[in-house]
């Protein structure tokens, strides 16, 4: 929402906030769930995933198409590929002839990468492992196709989007900071969704979430595994019998740690079905009914470089083409000989790495995962190159900023206000501008370095 809309929303009573949330939902519904969505969903239902040769042909077709599109309509790619014989790029195997697109290079050249006017694109902000964001522009067609693919995945497990009730746990700022009532959810009736704030899903608030879920009785839950895990722990530790049984739970955006999965399944008595994608439009990796993760070749190409990093080529990113893009995550494929009882020919993925599960600790509000912290910098795409949070004390956070020329110190107040919203007003925030934020010995960048982890019991935050 724009600032004016947010001011109106925050000053409205809760019943009016539900109406405004539904109104916003109807606006998004028109963009995300139009004719292309339903046509592509129908096409996916007919697709034969057991025929690997057909899937390879389909993948080669899409590689050819997206590379041609990028080279023709993107000023950046015209220059990036100027010394390459583009007529030789026809299949997945030919992608190795193209240079790798690094994140910093993409971030610094976004304006030239775009193939559509900024004001006409559907804008999404990446959360970014560096703590800074990129604004990715989608065409309406691409957005609707990605929504269709996600809903096709859920449909295969029995959940029908917009016809069944879903409970979503995310970082939407639906609860004004001044609110006193323990009502941490809002309804988006446009798509039968109740949105639960992940910011407040902890500590003494958990009982209110469970009570409301028992009244709402959703057919599915989705969102951040860390929030779902907090709910599961409360249910298990208090021997609570839920008044509903979801069809399935679909975690997203964070790593689904093994103990998260087992606890969530035990508490809600239903399967937890993981899936991987990204705001940038990375290829989907989805769970089948037998619990295996499959790389969805019809949504993009995943290459693994010599360092084990993923290079992704995305098929539904015509507004912001990303070809051989180093996304910052890693996966481990199963032995190619391994087959799945679900009869899908799509390669099996053993493990997905890269979604950080480090967190900050607030004395009054508990744990806050890396994903929430990355949202702090969404306004600063052109001014902050990287951001890191360091915690040595329970009541103090140090924020390191690596900045561009557009940065000014007035931005510090925005950062501090956002962190106080997440972590509480009693958290001291110290901001330091540095020339370079060092990487770990592994070469990876850590958004959060929490030196309290492992001693939480001593802090009373476990």
Q: How would you describe the overall organization of this protein?
A:
The protein is built from 14 helices and 21 strands. Strands 4-5-3-6-7 form a five-stranded mixed sheet. β6 (220-223), α10 and β7 form a beta-alpha-beta unit. By secondary structure, the protein is of the alpha/beta class. The protein has helices at residues 3-10, 14-32, 35-46, 52-73, 75-80, 103-108, 110-113, 140-155, 206-216, 225-237, 258-268, 370-374, 411-423, 456-459, and strands spanning 122-125, 135-138, 166-170, 185-188, 193-197, 220-223, 248-251, 275-276, 285-287, 293-295, 300-304, 310-314, 325-326, 330-333, 348-353, 359-362, 366-369, 384-393, 396-403, 428-433, 448-450. It starts with a helix and ends with a helix. It folds into three domains: 3-32 and 158-272, 3-Layer(aba) Sandwich (Rossmann fold), CATH 3.40.50; 35-147 and 277-353, Rossmann fold; 359-459, ANL, C-terminal domain (GMP Synthetase, Chain A, domain 3).
């Amino acid at each position: 929402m724009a600032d004016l809309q947010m001011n109106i929303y925050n000053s409205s009573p809760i019943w009016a906030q539900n109406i405004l949330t539904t109104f916003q939902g109807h606006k998004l519904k028109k963009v995300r769930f139009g004719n292309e969505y339903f046509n592509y969903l129908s096409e996916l239902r007919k697709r034969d995933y057991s025929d690997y040769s057909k899937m390879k042909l389909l993948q080669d077709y899409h590689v050819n198409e997206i590379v041609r599109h990028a080279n023709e309509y993107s000023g950046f790619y015209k220059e990036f590929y100027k010394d390459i014989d583009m007529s030789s790029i026809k299949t997945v195997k030919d992608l190795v002839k193209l240079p790798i697109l690094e994140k910093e290079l993409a971030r610094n050249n976004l304006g030239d990468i775009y193939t559509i006017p900024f004001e006409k694109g559907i804008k999404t902000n990446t959360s970014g492992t560096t703590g800074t964001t990129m604004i990715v522009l989608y065409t309406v067609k691409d957005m609707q196709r990605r929504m269709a693919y996600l809903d096709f995945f859920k449909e295969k497990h029995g959940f029908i989007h917009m016809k069944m009730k879903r409970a979503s746990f995310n970082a939407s700022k639906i609860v004004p900071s001044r609110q006193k009532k323990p009502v941490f959810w809002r309804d988006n009736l446009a798509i039968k969704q109740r949105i639960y704030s992940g910011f407040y899903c902890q500590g003494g608030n958990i009982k209110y979430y469970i009570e409301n879920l028992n009244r709402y009785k959703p057919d599915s839950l989705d969102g951040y595994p860390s929030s779902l895990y907090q709910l599961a722990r409360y249910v298990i530790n208090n021997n609570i019998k839920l008044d509903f049984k979801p069809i399935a739970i679909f975690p997203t955006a964070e790593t689904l740690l093994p103990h998260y999965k087992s606890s969530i399944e035990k508490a809600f008595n239903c399967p937890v079905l993981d899936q991987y994608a990204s705001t940038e439009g990375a290829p989907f990796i989805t769970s089948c009914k037998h619990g295996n993760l499959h790389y969805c070749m019809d949504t993009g190409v995943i290459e693994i470089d010599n360092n084990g990093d993923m290079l992704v080529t995305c098929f539904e990113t015509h507004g912001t083409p990303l070809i051989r893009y180093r996304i910052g995550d890693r996966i481990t494929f199963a032995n190619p000989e391994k087959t799945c009882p679900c009869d899908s020919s799509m390669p099996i993925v053993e493990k997905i790495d890269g979604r950080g599960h480090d967190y900050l600790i607030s004395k009054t509000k508990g744990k806050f995962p890396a994903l929430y912290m990355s949202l702090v910098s969404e306004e600063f795409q052109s001014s902050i190159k990287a951001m890191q949070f360091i915690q040595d004390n329970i009541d103090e956070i140090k924020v390191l900023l690596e900045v561009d020329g557009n940065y000014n110190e007035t931005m510090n107040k925005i950062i501090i206000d956002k962190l106080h919203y997440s972590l509480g007003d009693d958290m001291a925030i110290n901001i330091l501008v540095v020339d370079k934020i060092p990487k770990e010995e592994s070469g990876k960048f850590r958004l959060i370095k929490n030196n309290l982890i492992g001693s939480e019991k001593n802090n009373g935050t476990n």
